[in-house]
C-alpha cells in the first residue's frame, strides 16, 4: 500500500485527532497531579515546561493542517468527522484499530511497571512473577501489532478472519 493513498491519510487524520484529544486530557491530568503532588520532584516532572505538552498539542494541529492540505490536493477526505464510522472496512480501519489497541496497552504498561517495582520492593515473589508475566505478554502483543502494521503498510496480503469459526 502506498502510504500516501487516501486510505492511510484518513486513518492518520483520525489518529492525530485522537492524539490531540488525548494530549489535552493529559495536560489536565498533569495539572491535577501537580496540584496534589506531595513531592516537589513529581510536580516538576509533570510541569508543562518539562513535558512540553502544550507544544505537543500545537504540533498535532500543524500535522492535521498538513494532512488537510494533502487531502485537498487529492480531492480526498481527511477530516475525521465521526472518526471510526468514516473508516472503511479493511486496511483503513485496521490501521486505526492497531493504534487503539496499542493505546490501551501503553496506558496499562506504566501502571504494571510501577506495580512491579513496588511488588519487588516488598519482596512479593508471586506478585512480582505474575506482574512480570503480564508485562511480557503486553509487550509481545505490541510487537505483533507492529508487525501487522508494517505488513499492512507494505501492501502484504493479510488473510481475513472467518467470523463464523
Question: Mind explaining what this structure looks like?
Answer:
With 165 residues, the protein is an all-alpha fold. The protein has 2 domains: 1-87; 90-158. The protein has helices at residues 6-36, 40-45, 48-51, 53-73, 91-121, 125-153. Helix 1 packs antiparallel against helix 4, helix 1 (6-36) packs parallel to helix 5 and helix 5 (91-121) runs antiparallel to helix 6.
Gyration radius from CA atoms, angstroms:
20 Å
Strand composition percent: under 5%
Low-pLDDT regions: 1-6, 79-83
Structural class: mainly alpha
How many domains? Answer: 2
Number of strands: 0
Outline type: flat
Residue-averaged pLDDT = 81
List keywords for this structure.
165 residues; 74% helix; 2 domains; 0% strand; single chain; mainly alpha; disordered N terminus
Amino acid at each position: 500500500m502506498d502510504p500516501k493513498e487516501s486510505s492511510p491519510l484518513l486513518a492518520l487524520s483520525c489518529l492525530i485527532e485522537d492524539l490531540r484529544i488525548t494530549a489535552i486530557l493529559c495536560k489536565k491530568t498533569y495539572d491535577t497531579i501537580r496540584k496534589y503532588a506531595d513531592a516537589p520532584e513529581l510536580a516538576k516532572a509533570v510541569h508543562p515546561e518539562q513535558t512540553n505538552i502544550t507544544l505537543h498539542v500545537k504540533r498535532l494541529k500543524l500535522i492535521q493542517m498538513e494532512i488537510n492540505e494533502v487531502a485537498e490536493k487529492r480531492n480526498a477526505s481527511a477530516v475525521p468527522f465521526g472518526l471510526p464510522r468514516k473508516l472503511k472496512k479493511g486496511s483503513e480501519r485496521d490501521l486505526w484499530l492497531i493504534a487503539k489497541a496499542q493505546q490501551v496497552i501503553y496506558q496499562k504498561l506504566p501502571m504494571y511497571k510501577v506495580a512491579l517495582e513496588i511488588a519487588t520492593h516488598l519482596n512479593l515473589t508471586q506478585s512480582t512473577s505474575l506482574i512480570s508475566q503480564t508485562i511480557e505478554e503486553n509487550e509481545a502483543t505490541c510487537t505483533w501489532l507492529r508487525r501487522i502494521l508494517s505488513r499492512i503498510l507494505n501492501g502484504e496480503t493479510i488473510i481475513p478472519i472467518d467470523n463464523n469459526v
